[in-house]
Write a structure and sequence with these properties.
Elements lengths: L6 H5 L3 H6 L3 H18 L15 H11 L2 H21 L2
Helix pairs in contact: 3-5, 4-5
């Protein structure tokens, strides 16, 4: 879902008040996990999502559910959602 260019439509996507403000601690936990994962898989490089090392989001997410690793569950859920949105946009 790309952000619309129409001003009225953009106002219907409250990124700060409908996401950041709702979940500040959860967002911080996921961001910290992104940093930790980058240091684990790409030490010393600028923070980036190396998608070649991240392909089984739903299976990985379920493993994290079983482990009770909730920040990793959230990271994997967001990664899957991002890919689903990108795939949907690519097929439009």
């Amino acid at each position: 879902m790309s952000l619309p260019t129409d001003a009225e439509e953009r106002k219907r996507i409250p990124i700060y008040s409908g996401f950041i403000k709702y979940f500040p601690d959860a967002i911080a936990a996921v961001a910290a996990l992104s940093y930790k994962g980058n240091e684990q898989h790409n030490p010393g490089t600028k923070l980036h999502w190396d998608r070649s090392k991240s392909g089984d989001e739903l299976d990985a997410m379920m493993r994290h559910v079983l482990d009770g690793d909730w920040d990793a569950v959230a990271w994997r859920a967001l990664a899957n959602l991002q890919k689903e949105i990108e795939n949907a946009e690519a097929t439009e």
